[in-house]
Design goal:
The protein has helices at 17-22, 48-62, 74-80, 97-100; strands spanning 2-4, 28-30, 69-72, 92-95. By secondary structure, it is of the alpha/beta class. The chain has one domain (2-105): Alpha/Beta hydrolase fold, catalytic domain (Rossmann fold). Strand 1 (2-4), helix 1 (17-22) and strand 2 (28-30) form a beta-alpha-beta unit. Helix 2 (48-62) crosses helix 3. The longest helix is centred in the middle third of the chain and has 15 residues, at 48-62. It is globular, with a radius of gyration of 14 Å. Residues 97-103, 106-110 and 113-117 have low confidence and may be disordered.
Amino acid sequence: MLLLHGAGGATHSFRHLIPLLAQHYRIIALDLPGQGFSVLGARSRCGLDPVSDDIAALIRQEGWQPLAIIGHSAGGAIAQRFYGDAGKFTQIFEANRAILGSPDRIRTGQRLVIPTT
């Protein structure tokens, strides 16, 4: 599973969710450019589309095949750009602070679904 945090956040945003998911899945969490422990880089690619393109390139480069992409806030907007990409990413979930901030609200097998409209 690939976890994408929100604007101004970091992978630390998923500190309660990662241990729960890691019991059942391989977790990949990365900091968005210029946030968390990452740097923006010389190309200053920080918009939703460029970041989405760069993450897609990283996924291909590393050979990752995430079962699902989970995004929080801006991470959810980036995750939505992957929906249906080459038939690989059909499970996209967006989480909000009410879910991430309280691990007791997350249950095994619970699905967080983005509305289609």
